[in-house]
Amino acid sequence: MSDQNVHKAGFTSSGIARGSLASSIMSGEAKSFGGGVPSGGTTATLQEMGAKGSTHSSGFTSSGISGGSRASQMMSNEATSCGGGVPKGGTTSTIQSISMGGKGGRR
């Protein structure tokens, strides 16, 4: 289900779907970073997972983040860099939200 939700959001093997939630996320992230989308950021990570259908296998599941997965490592790294917590609207929380069928968080 998590892979399907990422695809429905507009992150597809053909690229980001025009007029989708994915395009909105990409636009907001590009504006925040002065015109570009950073490698390893929310858009790039979701697009990679959407293109490969690897959201669930990366550990972002409809039940939450799987222990010992790429997702849990991402969450740990983000929490460490943010002083101990994962920020609302951050990469990990946005990917998890979308993988569960949500719209992602906004900073």
From TrEMBL:
PANTHER family: INTERFERON ALPHA-INDUCIBLE PROTEIN 27, INTERFERON, ALPHA-INDUCIBLE PROTEIN 27-LIKE 2
Gene name of this polypeptide: ISG12(2)
Protein name, per record: Interferon alpha inducible protein 6
Family (UniProt): Belongs to the IFI6/IFI27 family.
Domain of life where this protein originates: Eukaryota
Biased composition (Low complexity): 53-64
Cellular component per GO, a single term: membrane
Subcellular location: Membrane
Bias (Polar residues): 70-80, 90-99
Keywords, in A-Z order: Membrane, Transmembrane, Transmembrane helix
Topology relative to the membrane: Multi-pass membrane protein
Main location: membrane
Region of interest (Disordered), residue spans: 28-107
Pfam families associated with the record: Ifi-6-16
